[in-house]
Write a structure and sequence with these properties.
It is a single chain. It is built from 14 helices and 3 strands. It has 287 residues and is mostly helical. Among the domains are: 41-162, no CATH class; 181-240, no CATH class. It has a 3-stranded antiparallel sheet. The longest helix has 23 residues, at 50-72. The chain starts with a helix and ends in a 15-residue tail after the last helix.
């Protein structure tokens, strides 16, 4: 070992392969170098289940909020249960992932690709809408499939991104949720139920609602709670309108809407008149 350590190291030019092994001369052109250079490749795994990816985003937002609320509210911690669900979703995403190989494009092919997708906006090098999918299709192919199969992968990803999934339960009912997790959460978590009661009728995505400032969320839910707490008949809060203890708090009153009176009188004439026609609508107009 000592002898080996003292042995002089051979000069660099002797222990490396000479360039002439690959090139015709010791001063190759850039084209010669690029012709023998192997393109770099990278491996990536893409989960192709859009439902799982969307739920991961939803649960991550709920988890961040639950952790904050667990710290400031005197309640049973909810973050651990959501963390368990998030772990399950990550496992499901990993199972749905497909291996792709991303290969470096030669310079000429890359330039040709840019020219094939000219910019439509001033100051851009390419078309922002079409260049990305074309680049992926040219660089990526699915493992075990021929080169160029990236175009099929892009098409599959685009279909997944745009399609609206139809979930079915065991009885084939359209729109039924297969996973009981969210049903259980809605029954257990009053805050989540209130958030969805506010969002769903108004077409607000729950994920979008969670991006609102906490103060805005609290005010929206306070408004909803106050609205739900009012009598459907008179609009007064049930806490001061219902119950025997409020029997002497209120007296009756009346007023006349003369516009409604005119419309109702006209409706009466139509109903009592000869040859009345079904479907006639009456309404008030200024005199």
């Amino acid at each position: 070992m000592a002898l080996q350590a003292l042995t002089p190291r051979p000069a660099r030019s002797h222990w490396r392969e000479p360039m002439t092994k690959h090139f015709m001369s010791d001063s190759p052109s850039i084209d010669e170098i690029m012709s023998v250079r192997k393109p770099r490749t990278e491996e990536l795994w893409l989960p192709l289940d859009n439902d799982v990816l969307a739920e991961i985003t939803e649960v991550e937002q709920l988890l961040a909020k639950a952790r904050r609320d667990d710290e400031r509210l005197n309640r049973v911690p909810q973050a651990p249960r959501l963390q368990e669900r998030l772990d399950e979703l990550h496992e499901a995403a990993a199972e749905a992932a497909v291996r792709f190989v991303c290969r470096e494009l030669p310079r000429k092919q890359y330039r040709d690709l840019i020219e094939a997708h000219p910019p439509v906006k001033e100051g851009r090098r390419w078309n922002d809408e079409t260049f990305g999918p074309a680049l992926i299709a040219a660089r990526v192919h699915r493992a075990g499939h021929p080169a160029g199969s990236g175009a099929g992968a892009v098409g599959h990803l685009e279909r997944l991104r745009h399609q609206r999934p139809v979930r079915r339960c065991d009885h084939g009912q359209r729109g039924a949720v297969e996973d009981p997790f969210w049903r259980e959460e809605l029954r257990r978590d009053r805050r989540l139920r209130a958030e969805l009661d506010y969002c769903v009728p108004r077409g607000i995505g729950h994920s979008d609602f969670l991006t609102w400032p906490d103060d805005d969320q609290d005010k929206a839910l306070a408004w909803l709670e106050d609205k739900n707490e009012r009598c459907a008949g008179c609009g007064q809060p049930r806490s001061i309108a219902w119950g025997d203890e409020n029997a002497h708090r209120w007296v009756g009153d009346q007023t006349t809407c003369h516009a409604c009176a005119a419309a109702e009188s006209q409706a009466h004439l139509v109903r009592e008149g000869e040859g009345s026609v079904a479907g006639v609508k009456t309404f008030p107009v200024p005199s």
